[in-house]
Amino acid sequence: xxxxxxxxxxxxxxxxxxxxxxxxxxxxxxxxxxxxxxxxxxxxxxxxxxxxxxxxxxxxxxxxxxxxxxxxxxxxxxxxxxxxxxxxxxxxxxxxxxxxxxxxxxxxxxxxxxxxxxxxxxxxxxxx
Length: 128
Prior knowledge:
The chain has 128 residues and is mainly beta. Helices cover 0% and strands 45% of the residues. The protein has strands at residues 2-4, 11-12, 18-19, 26-31, 34-40, 44-54, 57-64, 83-89, 100-104, 107-113. Strands 1-8-7-6 form a 4-stranded antiparallel β-sheet, with no helix packed on it.
């Protein structure tokens, strides 16, 4: 899996002004059956998270929401809702159809399994 970093993805915010996306911190763990990506996406909820695979590229996009407490009125605001975006190139040994995702308290865990043929297997030896 080769990482493709995109430091600034030009998008428009709600006012039509272009803005960039932040690179979320990601840890990647590998075992014989696949890889697990753990991404830090503070403030991102399930409905504001988009994970997709286009060809051989895994794309993680999310937008954090800034909660305004009930009963208050925003008088001056400089804090924007941060956007996150990260892309990774998946090799042919990964099963794109079996990717699973779990989001808990701003931490996304993605499991990307290897296809069965790419997983190591032990060959039994018989003695004669």
